[in-house]
User: Fold this.
Amino acid sequence: GGIITQTPKFLIGQEGQKLTLKCQQNFNHDTMYWYRQDSGKGLRLIYYSITENDLQKGDLSEGYDASREKKSSFSLTVTSAQKNEMAVFLCASSIGDSDYTFGSGTRLLVI
Amino acid sequence: QQKVQQSPESLIVPEGGMASLNCTFSDRNSQYFWWYRQHSGEGPKALMSIFSNGDKKEGRFTAHLNKASLYVSLHIKDSQPSDSALYFCAVSMGTGGYKVVFGSGTRLLVSP
Assistant:
């Protein structure tokens, strides 16, 4: 079976810092996604990519950059971390609109 | 823009009881529907999908879809403490836009 791995699991950053989150999958899925999960707000789409080197903005893309240099990996950059920001960032992959497979998340805290 | 709303926000049921989770969506062109379950410290996992109107049963779980009423639900029979989790409804237009919209979740607690 395949696996989707997010690193790091926990990330503590300082206000204004540029922070990068990484995601790797070995399902050979074409499409990969980054979601942000805040308590009480469900999952909000930041970026997605339908193939290598493709990037599509989601509803929450402002303040973030993404990169898909290989089919198996998708990284997300917080361009300037906001003080007191606390959220879980979830990476997922799929074939088209089929079931999404999620990683276990990166928990971000900005101090 | 598609709006997906779940109710209730949280739910407590006794072990062995029935849990009923509700989800409404706004776009009549929605085609595909999923329920995802997220245990604490993990990512969400797809629990079941439903694409046609009516009921779909998988073990203790039954999903119900009524596209005309813009409504999908999940019923968990004989609830177990291991069912305690955050449940998300997810809706797709199926247009190849690769955008599935998730609801804000229902937190289920099954008390022993």
